[in-house]
């Protein structure tokens, strides 16, 4: 362990310092509350549609109860599928308020419920049409698929959604490259699109109410428009406007390189701590984007990303040639000054997870001693000279922790026998509970840091993390 700078006494931020952070926090809280309220209102709306159409009265008999329950599960699944698509539409307000990791977590939870309700809808509605006879279920399903308008499309959409769900299971993700997983995940949009005609052509609640049908069409159109605007049109415009190209590739450590870039107004494209999805034109597999964080505070003309060789695409980054044009999507992530609630900050990173924290250490406003960075690495520290320069010129406190973790579930290395992770953290940063804590690294390691920070008294609102995983 090497402590580059000492930590001076605590300082109290002025009202002027706190006001911008509190204002952003209030806006983000309003967006989060509004998003949650909109989801619950959508679910209540489909419940109302079901009840108004006699859904409760139909529960009195076995076969009609099966059909009625099939209807409400289908409506709820459709509403959640709508929310799921919107969560991944990269809407800037949602990205800023929730952050990428939190949005992905909500997306997975909503998707799980949507899929489970979809399966329940498929089983129950067919069982009800089979007059409650389970033995007649296969034949009834076959007849419905070929005779009801939109049903064949809905089955195709269900198959696409099954593919997405199966490849989202952790065990399956471990066997797939990120690029392959991402490509397969796009089938979720196809599944949602194929399900829509079935809802409007055969859904009893829509057929009886033209106004409700018009609203449903409008909502779906707006959601798909959001996908086209934020995931297609905006990235295309930003790539054209900023005109990014590679200027050079510099080795940082064995298997790690920094790609230096130039463009126009790059400081308006991405903030320190954020990441973009990069496509280096001409590189093999360039059509599949790779998420890399900026590892320095962008200027108007220059930026940098640091890439560890963990797959074919990231390994190929070392061979990028000057002049290579770049297409980007983003920026994403809330590991920025936007999440800040305190004057003092603690940055904790491991491996490639140090990249966004290195950018934050340069881009954040702080006085000497108000910012501390803890780096975990196995053999070769990253950005050593740059961090030493920040320590000398800006008073950044730097703690370097070499070696492997001392045990699974711990985020520190050997040499601290008798001290748990919380005590070790308090030993390095006694006032950790008074700081915003930014964490980035592999998922299991990041979780162990979070647990230690929470145990050390850091409020959850002051803990900001991103996993280097998918």
UniProtKB/TrEMBL annotation:
Its cofactor is FAD. InterPro entries: FAD-bd_FR_type (IPR017927), Fe3_Rdtase_TM_dom (IPR013130), FNR_nucleotide-bd (IPR039261), MRET (IPR050415), Riboflavin_synthase-like_b-brl (IPR017938). Residues 1-20 are annotated as: Disordered. Keywords: 2Fe-2S, FAD, Flavoprotein, Iron, Iron-sulfur, Membrane, Metal-binding, Oxidoreductase, Transmembrane, Transmembrane helix. It is found in: Membrane. Coiled coil: none annotated. The keyword DNA-binding does not apply. It is a multi-pass membrane protein. Residues 239-338 form the FAD-binding FR-type domain. This is Ferredoxin reductase family protein. The lineage of its organism: Bacteria, Bacillati, Actinomycetota, Actinomycetes, Micrococcales.
């Amino acid at each position: 362990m090497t402590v580059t700078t000492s930590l001076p006494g605590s300082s109290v931020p002025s009202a002027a310092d706190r006001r911008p952070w509190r204002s952003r926090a209030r806006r983000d809280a309003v967006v989060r509350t509004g998003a949650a309220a909109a989801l619950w209102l959508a679910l209540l709306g489909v419940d109302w549609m079901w009840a108004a159409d006699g859904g409760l009265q139909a529960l009195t008999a076995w076969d009609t109860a099966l059909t009625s329950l099939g209807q409400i599960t289908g409506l709820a699944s459709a509403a959640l599928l709508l929310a799921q698509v919107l969560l991944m539409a990269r809407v800037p307000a949602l990205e800023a308020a929730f952050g990428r990791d939190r949005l992905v977590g909500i997306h997975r939870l909503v998707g799980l419920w949507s899929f489970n309700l979809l399966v329940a809808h498929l089983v129950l509605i067919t069982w009800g049409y089979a007059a409650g006879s389970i033995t007649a279920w296969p034949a009834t399903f076959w007849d419905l698929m070929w005779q009801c308008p939109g049903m064949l499309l809905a089955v195709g959409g269900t198959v696409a959604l099954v593919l997405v769900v199966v490849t989202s299971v952790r065990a399956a993700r471990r066997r797939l490259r990120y690029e392959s997983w991402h490509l397969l995940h796009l089938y979720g949009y196809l599944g949602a699109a194929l399900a829509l005609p079935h809802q409007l052509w055969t859904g009893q609640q829509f057929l009886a109410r033209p106004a409700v049908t018009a609203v449903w069409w409008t909502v779906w159109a707006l959601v798909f428009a959001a996908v086209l605007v934020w995931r297609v049109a905006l990235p295309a415009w930003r790539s054209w406007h900023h005109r990014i190209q590679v200027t050079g590739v510099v080795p940082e450590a064995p298997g790690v390189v920094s790609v230096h870039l130039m463009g126009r107004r790059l400081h308006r494209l991405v903030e320190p701590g954020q990441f973009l999805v990069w496509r280096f034109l001409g590189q093999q597999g360039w059509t599949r984007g790779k998420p890399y964080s900026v590892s320095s505070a962008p200027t108007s003309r220059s930026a940098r990303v640091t890439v560890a060789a963990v797959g074919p695409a990231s390994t190929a980054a070392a061979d990028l040639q000057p002049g290579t044009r770049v297409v980007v999507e983003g920026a994403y992530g809330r590991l920025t000054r936007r999440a800040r609630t305190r004057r003092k900050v603690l940055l904790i990173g491991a491996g490639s997870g140090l990249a966004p924290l290195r950018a934050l250490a340069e881009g954040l406003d702080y006085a000497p001693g108000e910012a501390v960075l803890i780096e975990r690495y196995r053999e070769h520290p990253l950005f050593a000279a740059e961090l030493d320069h920040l320590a000398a010129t800006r008073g950044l406190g730097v703690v370097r922790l070499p070696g492997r973790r001392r045990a699974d579930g711990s985020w520190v290395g050997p040499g601290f026998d008798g001290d748990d992770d919380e005590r070790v953290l308090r030993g390095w940063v006694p006032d950790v509970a008074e700081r915003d804590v930014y964490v980035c690294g592999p998922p299991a390691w990041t979780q162990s840091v979070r647990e230690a920070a929470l145990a050390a008294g850091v409020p959850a609102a002051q803990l900001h993390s991103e996993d280097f995983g998918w």
